[in-house]
Amino acid sequence: MDKEMFEKGLKMRRAVLGAEYVDKSIASADDFNMPMQELVTSYCWGEIWNRPGLPPKTRSLLNLAMLTALNRPHELKLHVRGALNNGVTREEIMEVFLQTAIYCGVPAAIDAFRNAREVFAEVDKK
């Protein structure tokens, strides 16, 4: 594992998803899933999220659409929170989900709206 890329990815991952969530994920990793934590942190967050071609806000919008299409509710909720951290508005999130209704299917978009509302409710409590 490239330690420098891991640290670069860890910084970005914490900025987007929140240090508490990221640190808990890494601290709770064991011998079985630590290699996945290292891969995701180094490759996804270090190599890709740090590329200069797209700002984090745009990457968040793309992730919301892709995770809706893939029907990955746990990751979608995580990235809704990350999108908010990256300056994506609730209106922009709504527009992404409306777009996914056309290209990914209405049921996928309905689930995405439901999951986002759960995140919004959690955020609004704080």
TrEMBL record:
Short name of one Pfam family: CMD
Residue ranges constituting the Carboxymuconolactone decarboxylase-like domain according to the UniProt record: 36-117
Gene3D superfamilies: AhpD-like
GO molecular function: peroxiredoxin activity
Domain of life according to the entry: Bacteria
Family annotation (NCBIfam families): decarb_PcaC (TIGR02425)
Protein name: 4-carboxymuconolactone decarboxylase
Organism of provenance: Oceanibaculum indicum P24
